[in-house]
Amino acid sequence: MARRYDSSTTTFSPEGRLHQVEYAIEAINNAGTCVGILASDGIVMASERRITSGLLAPAKTSEKTYQLCGHASCNVAGLTADANILIDQARLRAGRYAYQYQEPIPIEQLVEYVCNYKQFYTQRGGLRPFGVAFLFAGYDEQYGFQLYQSDPSGNYSGWKATVIGANNQAGKSLLKTEYKTGEEKIPNIQEALMLAVKVLNKTMDGTTAAAAAEKMELYTMTRNETGECVHHILNQEEASKVIDAVEAEAASAGDS
Amino acid sequence: MARRYDSSTTTFSPEGRLHQVEYAIEAINNAGTCVGILASDGIVMASERRITSGLLAPAKTSEKTYQLCGHASCNVAGLTADANILIDQARLRAGRYAYQYQEPIPIEQLVEYVCNYKQFYTQRGGLRPFGVAFLFAGYDEQYGFQLYQSDPSGNYSGWKATVIGANNQAGKSLLKTEYKTGEEKIPNIQEALMLAVKVLNKTMDGTTAAAAAEKMELYTMTRNETGECVHHILNQEEASKVIDAVEAEAASAGDS
Amino acid sequence: MARRYDSSTTTFSPEGRLHQVEYAIEAINNAGTCVGILASDGIVMASERRITSGLLAPAKTSEKTYQLCGHASCNVAGLTADANILIDQARLRAGRYAYQYQEPIPIEQLVEYVCNYKQFYTQRGGLRPFGVAFLFAGYDEQYGFQLYQSDPSGNYSGWKATVIGANNQAGKSLLKTEYKTGEEKIPNIQEALMLAVKVLNKTMDGTTAAAAAEKMELYTMTRNETGECVHHILNQEEASKVIDAVEAEAASAGDS
Amino acid sequence: MARRYDSSTTTFSPEGRLHQVEYAIEAINNAGTCVGILASDGIVMASERRITSGLLAPAKTSEKTYQLCGHASCNVAGLTADANILIDQARLRAGRYAYQYQEPIPIEQLVEYVCNYKQFYTQRGGLRPFGVAFLFAGYDEQYGFQLYQSDPSGNYSGWKATVIGANNQAGKSLLKTEYKTGEEKIPNIQEALMLAVKVLNKTMDGTTAAAAAEKMELYTMTRNETGECVHHILNQEEASKVIDAVEAEAASAGDS
Amino acid sequence: MARRYDSSTTTFSPEGRLHQVEYAIEAINNAGTCVGILASDGIVMASERRITSGLLAPAKTSEKTYQLCGHASCNVAGLTADANILIDQARLRAGRYAYQYQEPIPIEQLVEYVCNYKQFYTQRGGLRPFGVAFLFAGYDEQYGFQLYQSDPSGNYSGWKATVIGANNQAGKSLLKTEYKTGEEKIPNIQEALMLAVKVLNKTMDGTTAAAAAEKMELYTMTRNETGECVHHILNQEEASKVIDAVEAEAASAGDS
Amino acid sequence: MARRYDSSTTTFSPEGRLHQVEYAIEAINNAGTCVGILASDGIVMASERRITSGLLAPAKTSEKTYQLCGHASCNVAGLTADANILIDQARLRAGRYAYQYQEPIPIEQLVEYVCNYKQFYTQRGGLRPFGVAFLFAGYDEQYGFQLYQSDPSGNYSGWKATVIGANNQAGKSLLKTEYKTGEEKIPNIQEALMLAVKVLNKTMDGTTAAAAAEKMELYTMTRNETGECVHHILNQEEASKVIDAVEAEAASAGDS
Amino acid sequence: MARRYDSSTTTFSPEGRLHQVEYAIEAINNAGTCVGILASDGIVMASERRITSGLLAPAKTSEKTYQLCGHASCNVAGLTADANILIDQARLRAGRYAYQYQEPIPIEQLVEYVCNYKQFYTQRGGLRPFGVAFLFAGYDEQYGFQLYQSDPSGNYSGWKATVIGANNQAGKSLLKTEYKTGEEKIPNIQEALMLAVKVLNKTMDGTTAAAAAEKMELYTMTRNETGECVHHILNQEEASKVIDAVEAEAASAGDS
The whole model's pTM is what? Predict the structure, then answer.
C-alpha cells in the first residue's frame, strides 16, 4: 500500500520522503562511476566508460565529460539524454552571463542555476526529475578551483574530493583515507590522477589493467601560464601511463 | 482506506487535515535542528551541520545560514534544493522593495511574502508543498530585531526564542526554562550563543564536545556603531570557545 | 465506497453534498473560537489565542484580528496561511474601491468579494477550498456597524452576535439567552465585551482566570467624535479588568 | 460498480444520464422551498427562510430574493455561494444589454444567458455544476409578466405557477388544484399571495402560524401607474396579515 | 472489466467503439420523438411534448422547434440545455455567413458546421459529447427543401423522412411503408402532416386523441409567393384538425 | 491486468504496442469496404454503401468519396464525423498551397500533411486517435496518377491497388491474383472498374446483383483532353452496367 | 504490482528505470533491421523492407531511408508515423542552420537536435516517447563521414558500424568479428555493402536469395569529385549483384 506514494513526483510520503527523487537517485547509483579530486594546481575528474566497443566511433566529444564554458566542465552519471538538456542550459547561462556582465560566471552561480532547474522538475505534476548527477569542475577569480556535486533533487555541495555513480560509497571511503585534507599536503595533478585511478579500480571491480585504459576517461583542468583554463582529456597512451604507475605503486606496496 | 486523502495536496481529509502539508512537516522534523534566540543586542541562530566530512570544501557560502538582504538572514531546515528557490524569491523581493521605495523592506513583510509563496503550493493540484522550514532573523527601524519561524504550510509566527528541525520539542522545552522572558533579564549575544549551544547539545545527542564545533554553525546578527547590520558566522575557533564555555559551566554546575 | 466522492473538490456526492467543503469546515471547528457581538456604539470581537508561550514575540500585528481598511476588520478561525491570502485580497479590493470611487467600500460588498473568491475554490478541479472562516466587523454610512460571518463554501450572513470555531454551538446558545435583541436593550461596548468573555469562558473550558487574559484577544471597533473608526485590541491590563468583572459578576450571581 | 460514472461531471452513464447534474439537483431538493405564481397584475414569489435566529442581523438584502435589474428578480434554492456568482453574471448581463441597446433586456434572454452559463459547468472536466435552482420573475414589453424556473443542468421553462426546493412535488400538486389557469380567473396579487402561503404551509410542515411570518419571505412584483416595476418584500406585519387571512379561510372552510 | 473503457470520452474500446458517444445516443433514445418529412411543397416536423402541465406558461418560443435563420429550423431531441449551446452556434454561423457573403448559408454547410462542433467534444479529454440529436429543415437555392438528421457523434445524413428520439425504429418502419418515395407521389404538406401524426401516434403509445393535440408540436416550413420561407407552428385548433383527420381516416380504414 | 495499457492513448504496452491506435484500426475493420485501383488512364475507387434506405435523400455530396482539390479525392472508411475534420484540413492545405505557390500541391505532400495531423492525436494525452482510414487518389505532374492508403496511426503507403475496411484481407488477396502488375498489362479504367466490383462482391458477401448497384459507389478519376482531372461518381445506370458486365463474365467463366 | 510504474511516462520505477522508454525500445526491437557501416570512402546503410507486395506502388521516396539535407540521411526503425515528425524537424533544423550561418549544419549538432526533441517526450506527462530509432549518416568538413545511432530515450552515440531493429544483437556480434576496426583495413564502399548484406542475411533468417533483393534496401553515401555528397539507393539490379556476390563468397568459403 505504501507504494502508492511512489507514483507521483509531486507528493510526500507519510515519512516526508519524495520517492520519485529517490528512484531517480537509484538510477544514478547504477550508472558509471565518476571521481572528482581537487588538486593543488587544478582539478581531476575520472569516470568509467561503460559501453566500450571497437565499433564505436572515436569520440568527437567525450561521452562523460562536457565543457560548459571556458572555465567550467562537468562529468555526468545517469541518463545521457537528460544530461544533454541540462548541459545546454548551463552553456546558455554561462554564455549569457559572460555577454551581459563581460566576465566569466562565478562557478557556484552556474551550479546553482542548473540545480534550480532540476528542482523545478521535482515539485510539479506531469514532470519527472532529471535522472542525472553531475560533478562540476571550475575556476573563478574569487575562489580558485572548485569542485561541486549535484543530484536529481537539485541539491549541490562543494567538495575537495568526491565520487558519484555506482559504488560511490566504496569510492568515498577510499578517498577519506587517501586524500590528505591538510592544506600543506594537498595532492598535485599527477597525484590526484593516480588517486582517481585507484578509486575507479576499486569501484569498477574485475577490470584488468589492460582494459582499464579504455574503460577510464581521465580529465584534468589546469591553468596555463597566461591564466587560461586548460581542459584536457588524457588519450589512451597518457591514461595507460597513469594506470601503470598506480599498478607499479600497488605492486611495490605489496612487496614491502 | 483513509490513506487515500494523503495522495493529493489539494484535498482535505474528513478530519479537516491537509496530509501533504503534514508530511512535508515530517520531512523537516528529520532535518538538522536550528535554534534562534533574540538577544538584547542582536539575534543568534545556531544550526546542526548534518553532513560533515573532511572532504567537503571549505564552505564559500554557508549551507544552513543565508543572508537575504542587508538586514535579514535565514536558517534552513529541510530540503536545501527547495530552500534555494524560496531564498531566491526572498532576495528578489527585498531587492525590489529597496529599489522601489528606497528603504529596506520591513522584516515581517519579507517573511509574509515568502510564506504566501509557500501557501500557493499547498492549495493547487500538480504541486507539492515546499519541504522546508525557516528561521528568519532581521532588523528594521520600527520593531528592531525580530525572529520569525515558518513552516511548509505558509504559517509564520514571531518568537523570542524557538527551535525547528529534529527534536525541536526537546529544544523548545529547554528554552522555556532557560530563556528569561522578563524585559530586564533578556540575554546578550554571548549568553544567547551559549544558550543556543546548550539547546543543540540536547537535540544532537551523542556528540562529543570535540566534534561539536565542526557540527554546529553559530551565527550572530548585530549592529555596528554606524547602525549597519553585521552578519557573522563564527569560525571553528570562535565556536569552540563558546562550546567550551558551555561545557565549563555545565561542569561547574555539576560540581556545585 | 461512498468515500470516493470525498476526494475531489469538484464533485457532488449522491446526496448532493460537497464533501471537501464540509471537511474544510471541519478544520475550522477545531480552530480557536471567535465571538463577534454588535453593540449599540460599536462592535466587539473576541478570540481564543491557542498558542501561548512566553517565548512568543510580543505580537506586532495580531494573530487573530486583522484590519482590512479604515472601516473594517476581521477575525480568523482556521488556517492562518490561507487567511493571509484572502486578507490580502480584501485589503486590495478595499483600497482599489476607495481609489476608484473616492469613498469607503460598503461592508457587504467587501464581504461578498472575499466570499466569491472563496467560492471559486470550491468549484474547480486542482484547487482545494480555503480552510478558513471569518468574522467581519465594519461600519459604513448606509447601515452603520455590521457583523458578518463567512465559511469555506463562500456563504456569508449578517449577525447581531455569533460564534465561529471550536464549540461554536455552545457559544451560540449562550448568546441566544444572554444577548438582548430588542432594540432598546442592545448592549453597549462594555457589556458586549463582558458577554464575549463569558462566551469564550464557556467554549475554552478549563482555563483559569489568570491564564485567560493571555489566552483571549479582545477587540473593539468604535467611532470617535470626528466619526472615524477606532480599532482597538485590549492590552493585558484592560483585558484582565474585563475578565475580572465577569468573574465578579458570576460570583455575585452565585451569591444571590 | 455503476457508481464510478458518478465521479466525473463530464461523462454519461451507460443509461445516458449525467449523475453529477442529478446530484446537484438532489442538493436543491433539500433546500428551502420557493413558490412562484403569475398573477393578473404582477408576480408573487414566496420562499422558506431556513435559518432563523434572533441573532441574525435584520437583512439588508434578502437572503432568498435578489433583484437582477429594474424589471427582473429571482428566488434562490440551493447553495447561496454558487447563486451569488450567477446573480452577478445576470446583473452584469442585464446592465450591459441596457447600456448597449438602451432598452431593458428581454426576460427570456436574461434567463437563457444564466442557463447557458450553467450548462458550461456540466460539460467540462475540472468543474462541478452549480448547485442552485432559480425562479426568475420579470416583466418586459413584449410578453408582460413572466415566470421562469431553471435547474443546475441549465434547463429552463416558463410557468404560470411552480415550486422548487424541498417538497416541490407536494407544492406543485397543490398548485395544480388551486391555481385557476383559465384566462378569466387568473388570481390577482392578493389571491396569489394567499395561494403561495398555502403552498408553503404544506411544504414546511409543522410550523405554527406564529412562527410562519418569520420563516416565510413573501415578495411581489407589480407595476405602478408610471409603468415601472415595483419590487416589494413584505415586512413582518404585512406577511402576518396574509398568513392570518389564509388561516381564517382554512378555519371557515373547516366550519362549513 | 470491460466497463472501464466507458469512463472516458477520448478512448476507443478494444472493439473500436466510443462508449461515451453511444451513451449520449442512449440519452436521446429516451427523449421525446421527432419526425421529419420532406413534402412536395415544404417540410413537416412533428415532435412529442413530454412535459405538459396546465401551469406551464404559453410557450413564447417553442420547446422543441427552433428557427436558426430565415431559411432553416431544427427540432431537438435530448438535453435542451446542450441544444441551446449548439443552436446559438448555428444562428451565429448563419448570421455571419449572410453578413460576409450577402447570401443565405447553404443548408448542408450550416449542418456540417454544427456537426463538426459536436465532433470536437467526442475527441478531447475533459469534455463530454453533446447529449442532443437534431432534425434540420431548410431551403436553399441549389437543392430546395432539405431535411437532415445529426447525432451526438457529429455524424449527419440527408433524409426524405426520418425519426429521432424514443421509439425511432418503430417510427422509421412506419415511414418506410407509408412514405412514397417515387418522385410523382411525394406527399404535399397536408399529407405529410397527417403522416407525421400517424408516426407520433405510434411512438407515443397510449395517448388519447384529446390529449394528443396538446402533446404534439406540428411545424411546417413552406415558401410564400414571394419565395420567402414561412415557418409555422400549428396552434391547438389547427393541430386538432389534423389529428382528427388522421383518426377519421383510421376509422374509415377500419370500416372498410 | 495487461488491459490497463489500453486505456490511455499516450502509453506503450510492455510489448511496445499502442493499443488505442490498434483499437481505432479495429473500428475501421468494421467499416464499409473501399477498393482503390490504379488504372493506365486514371484511378478507380469503389466503396460499399452501408446505410441504404429509400428514405435517404438523394446524396448531394457523396457519403464515401470526397474531392479534396482539383486533382485529388479520397475514400473514407470509419467514423464519418472524424473524417470530416481531416477532409477540411486537407482541403485547406491544398487551397493554401495553391494560393502560395500558384501550382497544385503534390499528392504525397497532401497525404503526409493529413497523416502528420493524425499522428499528433496518437502521442498526446487527452486526445484519441482519429477513427478513420483513407484511400487518396490524385494526380500530379511529377508522378502522374497515385493511390495512397493511410490508417489512424498516421502511417501511409503508396499502392497500385489496395483495399481498406471490412474484409480487406480477402479483398487484397483477390487483387493480388487479378491485378496484373506488369507495366504492359496495367488495366484501363473500364477493367479496373470491373475488378473493383469483383472485389466488393467478395467482401460484401450475400448481396444480390440487383441490390449491388445501390450499395456500391463507383468513382473514377481521369484526365480530359485539356489535361484537367475529371472526378466522376457513376450513377445507378452506369454502375449497374459495370456490375452486369462482371456478372456476365463470371457466368461465362462458369460456362467454360 | 510493480507494473503500475509502467503506465506513465513521467515516473521512475523504484529501480530507477523509465518503463515507457523501455517499452518504446521494445517496439523498435520488433521493427525491420537497419545496418550502418562506415566505409573508407563513404557510408553504407542497409535495411530490411518488411512489407513487400507486388501491389505496392514503386516507391517515390524510400520507406526506410530519408535524406535530411544535402549532407545527411537517416534510416528508420520503428513507427513510421512517428519518424515523419522527427524527420520534418531535422530537415527544418538543417535548412534553418544553412540559412542562418550559410554553411551546412555539423552532423552531430543535427543529431543532438533530434535527440533533445525526443528527450522532451520522455519527461513530461500527457506525452509518450517517440517509438522510433534512427541511424544517421552524414558528412561534414570537420569530422568527415559519421554514423550515429539514436533510440527513443534521446540517447545517441557515434559508431563505425552498428545495427538497430530486430535481432540487432546477432547483427552486432557479426559486425564485431567481420568489421576491421584498424585504420588501415577499413572497408571501402563495396566491401561495406557486402558486409551489410551479410548482416541482414543473418538477422532476416529464412529469406532466399531471390527474395532478398526485394526485401533489402541498400543505400550508399559517397562524395563525388566536386566534393558533393551523393545519396544513392541501389536499384533491384544493383542490389542483386551485391547479394549474389555475398552468396558466391559464402559458397566459395563453404568450398574451401
Answer: 0.89
Closest CA to C219 of C30, C37, C33: C37
Is residue E200 classed as helix, strand or coil in its secondary structure? helix
User: Cβ separation of D27 and C12 shorter than 8 Å?
Assistant: yes
In a domain, E2, yes or no: no
Q: How far is C213 from chain D (nearest CA, A)?
A: 27
ipTM of predicted assembly, 2 dp: 0.85
Output DSSP code: residue E59.
P
Contact D175 E6 (CB under 8 A): no
Give domain status of residue B107, yes or no.
yes
Which letter does DSSP use for residue D159 in this model?
B
Q: How far is F219 from chain G (nearest CA, A)?
A: 20
Q: Report DSSP state, residue C1.
A: -
Q: What is the CATH number of the domain that holds A103?
A: 3.60.20.10
Residues paired with residue F229 on neighbouring β-strands, in sequence order:
F223
Q: Let me know if residue B58 belongs to a domain.
A: no
CA proximity to G32, closest of G63, G5, G8, G1: G63
Residues 6 or more apart whose Cβ sits within 8 Å of residue G19? F14, G5, G6, G13
Residue closest to G232 by CA, chosen among G219, G245, G251? G219
> How confident is the model over A74-125, as pLDDT tens digits?
999 999 999 999 999 999 999 999 999 999 999 999 999 999 999 999 988 7
pLDDT digits (tens, 9 = 90+) for D149-200: 999 999 999 999 999 999 999 999 999 998 876 655 789 999 999 999 999 9
Q: What DSSP string describes C127-183?
A: B----EEEEEEEEETTTEEEEEEE-TTS-EEEBSEEEESTTHHHHHHHHHHHS--SG
The pLDDT tens digits for G187-244 are 999 999 999 999 999 988 665 555 677 889 999 999 999 999 999 999 889 999 999 9
Instruction: Domain count for chain C, please give it.
Output: 1
Helix (H, G, I), strand (E, B) or coil at F118: helix
Distance from CA of E184 to the nearest CA of D (A): 42
H-run or E-run covering G144: strand G144-150
User: What gap in Å lies between CA E47 and CA E31, rounded to an integer?
Assistant: 10
CB A9 within 8 A of CB G5: no
Residue E2 predicted with pLDDT over 80: no
CB contact under 8 A, A147 and B79: no
What value, to the nearest 5°, has the Cα angle with vertex G208 and ends G207 and G210? 125
Do B and F touch, 3+ Cβ pairs within 8 Å? The answer is: no
DSSP assignment, residue B231? E
Strand partners, E65: E75
Q: Number of B:C CB contacts under 8 A?
A: 112
Phi and psi angles of residue D147, each rounded to the nearest 5 degrees, phi first: -130, 125
Question: Strands C144-150 and C156-158, how do they pair?
Answer: antiparallel
- Answer yes or no: do A17 and B29 touch at CB < 8 A: no
**Residue carrying C-alpha cell 527551535:** B163
A97: how many CB neighbours lie within 10 A of its CB? 18
Total beta-carbon pairs less than 8 A apart between chain F and chain G: 112
Domain coverage including residue D170 = 17-48+63-249
* Alpha-carbon gap, residue F35 to G169, rounded angstroms: 41
C-alpha grid cell, residue E109: 454547410
Alpha-carbon distance F6 to nearest alpha carbon in chain G (angstroms): 10
Of F8, F16, F119, the CB nearest to G85: F119
In a 13 Å sphere around the CA of B117, the CA atoms on its Cβ side amount to: 21
CA-based nearest residue in chain F for residue E115: F81
Are A37 and A43 in contact, with CB atoms under 8 Å apart? yes
> Is pLDDT at F3 greater than 50 in this prediction?
no
In a domain, D58, yes or no: no
CB–CB contact G81 F115 (8 Å): yes
Dump pLDDT digits (tens) for G149-185.
Answer: 999 999 999 999 999 999 999 999 999 998 876 655 7
